[in-house]
């Protein structure tokens, strides 16, 4: 496998043109000055080497979301590495076993650092079997809360965000711009790699003037491409689409973000050339990544998600908030998010698994909000009621009051987080970990 020289990935303050056109530039936190960070593109089997340099005024780390890597490279402060202090650096160096669409972001005060702009795509290209496309585009979707003057400062995370749906913004960008568009030839085949980098917003994405298929979810190829009309993308989820830009109605095609009865353009394609009826054949399935097949499963471990109220919750909340965030409002309200009654990162793992064991976890959402459950270091499958399993994912959207079962082969030794990727929820306690020995 080829080895890259260690380029530097610096987290630092910058300004960027993310707000609507007539607004001033926005003060952001960036990777190497860019928001989002420039996509890192490598090939399956290669090594990624980045010297992370922290030029922010608070500690940070980099987490490589969805990539099955060595535990020491996972970027979780206090669990897999120590935080990188302002002015310090840390070398991330690991092999990329899986092809697909992944991403990177901080894992310290992620609710703030990501709301200020820190995230980027990690694209691992297939060594063979990639669909032939005219264009291969990353569409990193983010959602910002901007004040009247187009700034982030102070404008995020009030009590309502912590205790309800998380921080939902008032401005959506794709690759850091409110008006992503490209010129394409009519009937061009395009690969779109969607990444939801928002703190908490769930996107409903629909096609207009595009004929498409979903070929991968959360980086992992589907066994068979699935027709794409509409798709839900919870925070941290990704979808690889292969679309043909047919645009039979006018000279434009869109990816639309649906919001109630209306919609807005997430991406616009200006289509060039005559309309013609010929259709391209459906794409082939992408080659599978080397993920272990599920084995026989023992009894499920059970996890309950709760919003903790009352005395116990308040006590734990007070401890946690004082230590982690100073969320005095939350303490006063006596409300925090909890796993099995633990509203803090526990000192001990929620459970241990032996390497190679197939683990089944029943997750009970006993709250009035949806959650986006994310497991580090492994991809899992949802076990459906009829015993069949869903596609490999690393983040699963659970509806309010929904219960799900997931199963995965615990084949990556180390301490791995399991948390809600709605960042106000995980910071508010919905974060635990398990140990694979
Ligand atoms: Cu996308 Cu624990 O992270
Ligand atoms: Cu992750
Ligand atoms: Cu949540």
Comma- or semicolon-separated keywords:
437 residues, mainly beta, Immunoglobulin-like, 3 domains, six-stranded mixed β-sheet, 5 helices, binds CU-O-CU linkage, binds copper (II) ion, oxidoreductase
Task: Please describe what this structure looks like.
One of its GO terms (molecular function) is copper ion binding. This is Copper oxidase. Keywords: Metal-binding, Oxidoreductase. This protein has 437 residues and is mainly beta. It has 3 domains: 121 residues, Immunoglobulin-like (Sandwich); 137 residues, Sandwich (Immunoglobulin-like); 136 residues, Cupredoxins -  blue copper proteins (Immunoglobulin-like). 8% of the residues lie in helices and 45% in strands. The chain contains 5 helices and 30 strands. It has a 6-stranded mixed sheet, with no helix packed on it. A 6-stranded mixed sheet has the order 21-20-23-28-25-26. β14 and β15 form a beta hairpin. The two termini are 27 Å apart. 48% of the residues are buried. About 6% of the residues have low confidence. It binds CU-O-CU linkage and copper (II) ion (CU) (2 copies). The site of CU-O-CU linkage has 10 residues, from β5 and β29.
């Amino acid at each position: 496998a080829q080895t890259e020289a260690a380029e530097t990935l610096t987290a630092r303050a910058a300004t960027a043109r993310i707000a609507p056109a007539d607004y001033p530039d926005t003060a952001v936190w960036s990777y190497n000055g860019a928001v989002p960070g420039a996509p890192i593109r490598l090939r399956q089997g290669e090594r990624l080497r980045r010297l992370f340099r922290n030029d922010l005024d608070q500690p940070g780390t980099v987490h490589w979301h969805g990539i099955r890597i060595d535990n020491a490279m996972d970027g979780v402060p206090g669990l897999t590495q120590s935080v990188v202090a302002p002015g310090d650096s840390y070398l991330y160096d690991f092999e990329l076993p899986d092809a697909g669409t992944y991403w990177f972001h901080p894992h310290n005060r992620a609710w703030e650092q990501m709301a200020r702009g820190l995230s980027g795509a990690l694209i691992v290209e297939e060594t063979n079997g990639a669909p032939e496309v005219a264009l291969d585009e990353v569409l990193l979707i983010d959602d910002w809360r901007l004040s009247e003057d187009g700034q982030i400062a102070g404008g995020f995370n009030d009590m309502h965000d912590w205790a309800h749906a998380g921080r939902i913004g008032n401005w959506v960008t794709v690759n850091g711009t409110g008006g992503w568009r490209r010129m394409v030839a009519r009937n061009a085949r395009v690969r779109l790699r969607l990444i939801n980098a928002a703190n908490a917003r769930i996107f409903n994405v629909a096609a207009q003037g595009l004929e498409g298929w979903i070929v991968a979810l959360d980086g992992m190829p589907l066994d068979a491409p699935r027709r794409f009309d509409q798709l839900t993308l919870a925070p941290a989820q990704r979808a690889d689409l292969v679309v043909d830009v047919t645009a039979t109605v006018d000279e434009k095609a869109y990816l639309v973000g649906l919001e109630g009865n209306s919609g807005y353009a997430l991406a616009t394609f200006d289509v060039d050339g005559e309309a013609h009826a010929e259709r391209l054949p459906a794409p082939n399935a992408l080659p599978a990544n080397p993920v272990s097949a599920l084995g026989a499963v023992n009894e499920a471990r059970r996890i309950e998600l709760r919003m903790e109220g009352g005395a116990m919750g308040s006590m734990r909340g007070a401890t946690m908030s004082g230590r982690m965030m100073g969320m005095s409002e939350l303490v006063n309200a006596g409300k925090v998010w909890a796993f099995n009654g633990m509203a803090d990162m526990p000192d001990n793992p929620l459970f241990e698994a032996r390497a190679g064991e197939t683990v089944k976890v029943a997750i009970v959402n006993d709250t009035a909000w949806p959650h986006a459950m994310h497991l580090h270091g492994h991809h899992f499958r949802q076990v459906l009621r009829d015993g069949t399993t869903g596609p490999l994912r690393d983040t699963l959207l659970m509806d309010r009051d929904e219960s799900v079962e997931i199963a995965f082969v615990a084949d990556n030794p180390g301490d791995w987080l399991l948390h809600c990727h709605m960042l106000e929820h995980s910071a508010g306690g919905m974060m635990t970990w398990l140990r694979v020995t």
